[in-house]
Specification:
This protein is α+β, with helices and mostly antiparallel strands and about 325 residues long. The chain has 12 helices and 10 strands. A hairpin with a 2-residue loop joins strand 8 and strand 9.
């Protein structure tokens, strides 16, 4: 259960027993767990490396540290690594989109329908999306940017979603966290989830994307301009790369219906993302667009963060956030 924190099954069993019987030696632990003594000693060494136990070198007995101290550090480290991985995959997603756009612009690229086909016009893109969804056999994966979804888009998706789910297609979607502020979108996602669909949220979704049956993917020609059309990708290597991107973002997302988990500094994922955006020099306008919220919301969040940090300016807030380990 604690593999995500670097604790395998055997060290976890040893640690749980130590919490019940602190001061046990390797021989007693091995007997109670039905393990060999070398296996227990190896598990204790791993727990000591993680800062969860203190092992007496002379006697071999072990005392567990207070769990809230040890696990707070491990959770903080895991969340930091998750954040780094997510940002790497966001960058990879944008890089893949750029490569696809360059390929789609090459003369004659569009005629290779087995690899990449450029679709121009929003109506044509929507029709192709509906066609792919209607013919999905096993799976549909979607990245959805911008928070609130357009009413006509949701209306068009409802019958397609229902039919796909009824024939056993697994549908997973990642929404931008700000969609929670739009009741119609929340109602739609709740309806879709009740039918068997799955949804998660993230503070920032890197680009629009739909992957069907792990065989075809639609991505924007220009992630910053939806009017530029889309690229339909059928190259197995590129589609696989996009599926890997989706899976990593899915692992980092918050399941719909659950509150985004706050970290040890009581920061929500959205607040943490805002601090990162401001830390790399984004203006309030840019941060608002990336988070899919209003400028007013970003400024309110800024004010709340500055108040919590006891800062009188954004520069001072950045210094204090770094000093307190928020960044």
């Amino acid at each position: 259960m604690l593999e995500a924190l670097g604790i395998a099954e055997q060290p976890e069993a040893v640690y749980r027993l130590l919490l019940e019987r602190p001061g046990c030696g390797p021989a007693e632990l091995a007997e109670r767990l039905g393990r060999t003594e070398p296996e227990v000693r190896e598990a204790l060494a791993r727990l000591a490396d993680l800062g969860l136990v203190r092992v007496d070198a002379a006697t071999g007995t072990a005392e567990p540290f207070t769990p809230d101290v040890g696990f707070s550090f491990l959770l903080s480290r895991a969340e930091a690594e998750l954040g780094r991985s997510r940002r790497r995959f966001e960058q990879a997603g944008r890089a893949v989109a750029g490569i696809l756009a360059s390929y789609g612009d090459r003369p004659g690229a569009g005629v290779r329908h087995d690899l990449v086909d450029r679709i121009t016009g929003l109506d044509q893109v929507r029709e192709r999306l509906e066609d792919l969804a209607a013919n999905a056999r096993t799976e549909c994966l979607s990245l959805l940017t911008g928070g609130a979804q357009l009413p006509d888009t949701m209306d068009a998706s409802r019958p397609l979603d229902r039919l796909a789910l009824e024939r056993g297609v697994r549908i997973r979607s990642i929404y931008q966290e700000s969609f929670r502020n739009d009741p119609p979108t929340v109602d739609y996602v709740r309806w879709y989830r009740d039918l068997g669909g799955e949804a998660r949220t993230m503070p920032v979704v890197p680009m629009l994307m739909v992957v069907v049956d792990r065989e075809a993917a639609l991505v924007p020609v220009d992630p910053a301009d939806g009017r530029a059309g889309a690229l339909e990708v059928r190259s197995p290597g590129l589609v696989h790369a996009l599926v890997v991107l989706f899976d990593r973002l899915w692992e980092a997302g918050t399941p719909f219906g659950e509150s985004p988990r706050r970290d040890e500094h009581d920061l929500s994922p959205q607040e943490r993302e805002l601090l990162l955006l401001l830390g790399i020099g984004c203006t309030d306008d840019v941060a608002a667009r990336r988070l899919g919220v209003s400028l007013r919301t970003v400024r309110r969040m800024n004010a709340e963060l500055m108040n919590r940090l006891g800062a009188r300016s954004r520069f001072e807030a950045g210094v204090r956030a770094a000093k307190e380990g928020w960044l």
